[in-house]
Amino acid sequence: AGIIITSAVILLLMSFLIWYLLHWVGKFRSIEQMKDDFTHNMTHELKTPVAVAYSAADSMLRYYDQSDEQRNKRLLTIIMQRLNFLSGMIENILSMSMERFKSMQLNIEKVRLRPLVEEVVGMIEMKAGKPAKIEIYIPENVEISTDSLHFGNVISNLLDNAVKYSGDAVEIKIYGDNNEISISDNGIGIPKGSLPYIFDKFYRVTDGDRYEVGGYGLGLYYVKQISEMQGWSISVISEENKGTTFTIKFNRDEKR
Ligand code: ADP
Asked: Which atom of ligand 1 has the smallest separation from the CA of 166?
């Protein structure tokens, strides 16, 4: 009986060791995988507009018809839009590099919170492509000290995610005062195991269908960097299939 028990214990220990190793290797590979995914997505996102702009220019040059003003305008608009998109992408990539963050100067000024949030919400609603009920609960008189351009991007990233990672009918609530701003959605939520990593550069949750949603895992990294540069803290509460709330607490010196 002693031999059986000893063998069982050894077997159990070995299974645990193998499980642990696989788990560890799995984690290690997923970082590699994350980088591959990033390169793949980025390449796709950059190549498509280049190809579209190229073929519009090509078609204009090959079959140039001065009299067809409408066609010329249409093709030029396509080229212009794609170039615009590409220049935005380049700007995003640059602003993600650490060097850029280190040397970046924020232009801090007093900003009225509500109109700024309203402006971003307007843009997100146009972009959403599905019904998005976004309610803003921020008193008119609230002012914070921040860089309006970057703060606008921060709110835009959080709202963009709230829309992206929610079902067909999105409901978002934005609360704000002099001390904090919070954005809650009724979306798919974030698995507990992923919560410690979501602000990491390139990190994306790989569970289920959510990976079908486009992205680079840079949005929240940017949000955190900009928040920390101003001495703010950012936290998240999330429950799967219920929703997610991100809260940014403005530091004492920054308020009012
Ligand atoms: P991405 O480009 O993948 O959206 P982010 O850095 O913005 O990158 O977010 C990192 C990950 O956190 C996302 O891939 C997503 O899985 C998760 N996430 C972020 N915001 C939300 C949200 N509001 N609801 C559910 N998941 C979210």
From this structure: 24
As a whole number of angstroms, the distance between CA 192 and CA 241 comes to 12
Confidence (pTM): 0.70
Q: Which of 132, 138, 142 is nearest to 162 (CA)?
A: 132
Cα Rg, the chain, nearest whole Å: 24
d(CA 21, CA 24): 5
State which ligand 1 atom lies nearest to the alpha carbon of 216: 2
Contact 222, 170 (CB under 8 A): no
Average pLDDT over every residue of 54-77: 90
Q: How far apart (Å, rounded) are the C-alpha atoms in residues 56 and 75?
A: 6
- For residue 181, what are the β-bridge partners? 176, 248
Distance CA 158, CA 199 (A): 12
What is the whole-number distance in angstroms between the Cα of residue 211 and the centre of ligand 1? 10
Residue with the bigger pLDDT between 73 and 101: it is: 73
Burial pattern 74-95, b for ≥16 Cβ within 10 A else e, equals: ebeebbeebeebeeeeeeeeeb
ipTM value for the complex: 0.98
